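Try this one yourself first.
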C-alpha cells in the first residue's frame, strides 16, 4: 500500500502499466467513437464536486473515475474525423516524452537547473531556424502556444522600439484573437490597435497597411509592430509576407508572423512555396501542438536576433545569481514570461528521432492534399458551395444549391442547423466561421490518422443533411 505520499515500486509499475493499457486501448477504439463527447455542467458537477477526501482511496478506482468522468467527456482532438477548430493528433513518442519529462520533473528555467534539456531546446530551436530559413543570429524559446509566442514577440517589439508613448500595432481582420490579446496585455490602448480590412482573398493588402501607418505617423503615433498571418485560422490564408516585409523593414516596424497554425507546412515543398517571405520576419510564432503532431501545450517563438528577446526579458534577481553561467549557457527563462517551465523540446526531438523528417513531411503534405481534394469534391457537388479555396489544410464551404435562389438568411439558418446535426448525431466533428458575416462550415483536415474516406464520408453526410434541410 501507500506510505505517506510514496508508493512502493511494484505498485508504481502496476499503475503505470494500467494507465498505459487504458491509453493504448482507447486509441485503438477511438475511430469507432464519436469525435466529440461532453456533458452539461449540472451532470458533471453532481459527479465530481466534493470536499477533498481525508483518507486515500483505491488507486485503480480513482483512475477509472478520472477516465470516465473527467477525460472522456471532452473533445477527441486526435479522432480521424475531428475536423473542427485545429485538430491535434500527437505521436506516441511525443506522449511518452511528456511522461518522461514529468517523471524526471525537469524545470527548464536555467542552464543550472536543466543543462541537458537546455541544450536540447537549443537543438530543436535550431531545427525550426533551419526550416524557417532564419539566420544564425536567430534563437527563441518554446512556449505554451501561439498566444504566448505572440505576447513575447510583442514585448520584444515594444522594447526594440524603445517603449514609445502612443505606440500602435497592426493586424488584419483575419488575425487571431491571440494577436489582439497580446497587444492588450502589453498595454497598447484599444484605440491604437489597428485591425485592417482584408481583400476578397482574406489577405492583408500592403497598401492598406502603408496607408494606416502613414495616417498614424502624421497623427504623432509610433507604429511598433505588424502581425501578419501565415495560415489564418479561419481560412488558411497567407498574407503577402514578402511585400509586407519589404514595407516594414525600411519603416523600422517589427514584423511578427503568426504562423501558429500554418507554419509547420514550411517543411514541405508546397508549404514552403506558400510561406515564401516568412524568413524575412523579425519573429515567428509556430505551434508544434497543431501541425507537428505534439501533445499540448507546445508552442515556439523564434526571433531573427536572439538578443532582442533577451534584452526584453532578462532581469537580474539575486536569488538566481548562481544560475548565471554567461552567454554560452543561456537561461531560457531570460527569453520569455515563464521562469519555472516544463521541458517542451524532448517530445519534438524524440518523435523526430524515432520517425524521421520524411515521415513528418509526408504527414503534413497529406493534410494539404486532403484539403485540396475536399475542395474539389465541394466544387463538383450540386448542393455545396466552395467559399474559400483549400489553403494549408483548411476548406470553407456551405450548403447552397446551384440555382442560387435561396436567400442569405435562410442559408445561414440551414447551415447552422446542419452543423448542429453533425455535432449531435454524427461521429464527425466540425466547426464554423464567419466569412464577411456569411456563415461557413470549416474543415481542417491536418490529422495524420485521417483518411480520404473519413473526409469523403463526412462531406456526403453534409450533402445528405443539406438535402433534408432544403
Ligand atoms: C491557434 C492559434 C493561435 C493561438 O495559439 P495557442 O497555441 O492556442 O495559444 C494564434 N494564432 C493562430 C493563427 C492560431 O491558429
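Now uncover the answer:
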Amino acid at each position: 500500500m501507500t506510505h505517506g505520499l510514496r508508493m512502493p515500486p511494484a505498485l508504481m509499475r502496476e499503475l503505470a502499466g494500467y494507465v498505459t493499457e487504458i491509453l493504448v486501448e482507447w486509441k485503438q477504439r477511438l475511430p469507432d467513437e464519436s469525435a466529440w463527447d461532453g456533458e452539461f455542467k449540472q451532470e458533471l458537477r453532481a459527479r465530481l464536486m466534493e470536499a477533498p477526501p481525508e483518507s486515500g482511496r483505491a488507486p485503480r478506482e480513482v483512475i477509472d473515475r478520472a477516465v470516465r468522468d473527467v477525460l472522456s467527456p471532452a473533445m477527441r482532438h486526435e479522432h480521424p474525423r475531428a475536423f473542427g477548430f485545429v485538430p491535434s493528433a500527437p505521436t506516441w513518442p511525443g506522449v511518452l516524452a511528456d511522461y518522461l519529462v514529468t517523471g524526471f520533473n525537469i524545470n527548464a528555467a536555467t542552464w543550472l537547473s536543466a543543462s541537458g534539456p537546455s541544450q536540447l531546446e537549443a537543438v530543436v530551436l535550431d531545427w525550426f531556424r533551419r526550416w524557417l530559413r532564419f539566420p544564425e543570429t536567430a534563437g527563441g524559446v518554446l512556449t505554451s502556444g501561439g498566444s504566448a509566442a505572440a505576447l513575447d514577440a510583442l514585448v520584444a517589439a515594444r522594447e526594440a522600439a524603445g517603449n514609445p508613448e502612443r505606440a500602435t500595432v497592426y493586424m488584419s481582420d483575419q488575425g487571431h484573437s491571440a494577436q489582439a490579446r497580446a497587444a492588450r496585455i502589453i498595454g497598447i490602448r484599444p484605440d491604437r490597435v489597428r485591425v485592417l480590412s482584408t481583400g476578397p482573398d482574406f489577405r492583408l493588402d500592403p497598401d492598406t497597411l502603408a496607408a494606416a501607418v502613414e495616417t498614424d505617423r502624421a497623427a504623432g503615433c509610433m507604429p511598433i509592430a505588424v502581425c501578419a498571418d501565415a495560415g489564418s485560422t479561419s481560412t488558411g490564408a497567407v498574407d503577402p509576407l514578402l511585400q509586407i516585409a519589404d514595407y516594414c523593414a525600411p519603416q523600422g516596424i517589427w514584423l511578427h508572423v503568426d504562423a501558429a497554425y500554418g507554419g509547420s507546412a514550411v517543411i514541405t515543398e508546397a508549404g514552403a512555396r506558400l510561406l515564401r517571405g516568412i524568413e524575412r520576419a523579425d519573429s515567428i510564432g509556430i505551434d508544434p501542438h497543431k501541425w507537428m503532431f505534439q501533445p499540448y501545450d507546445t508552442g515556439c517563438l523564434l526571433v531573427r536576433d536572439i538578443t532582442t528577446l533577451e534584452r526584453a526579458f532578462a532581469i537580474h534577481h539575486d536569488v538566481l545569481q548562481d544560475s548565471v553561467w554567461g552567454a554560452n549557457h543561456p537561461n531560457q527563462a531570460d527569453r520569455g514570461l515563464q521562469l519555472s517551465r516544463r521541458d517542451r523540446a524532448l517530445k519534438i526531438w524524440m518523435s523526430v528521432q524515432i520517425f524521421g523528417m520524411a515521415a513528418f513531411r509526408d504527414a503534413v503534405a497529406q493534410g494539404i492534399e486532403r484539403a485540396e481534394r475536399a475542395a474539389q469534391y465541394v466544387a463538383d457537388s450540386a448542393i455545396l458551395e466552395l467559399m474559400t479555396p483549400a489553403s494549408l489544410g483548411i476548406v470553407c464551404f456551405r450548403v447552397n444549391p446551384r440555382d442560387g435562389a435561396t436567400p442569405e438568411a435562410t442559408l445561414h439558418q440551414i447551415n447552422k442547423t446542419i452543423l448542429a446535426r453533425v455535432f449531435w448525431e454524427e461521429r464527425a466533428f466540425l466547426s464554423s466561421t464567419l466569412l464577411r458575416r456569411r456563415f461557413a462550415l470549416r474543415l481542417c483536415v491536418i490529422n495524420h490518422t485521417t483518411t480520404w474516406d473519413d473526409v469523403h464520408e463526412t462531406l456526403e453526410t453534409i450533402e445528405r443533411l443539406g438535402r433534408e434541410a432544403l
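Discussion: The two ends are 63 Å apart (CA to CA). The CA atoms of residues 40 and 46 lie 10 Å apart.
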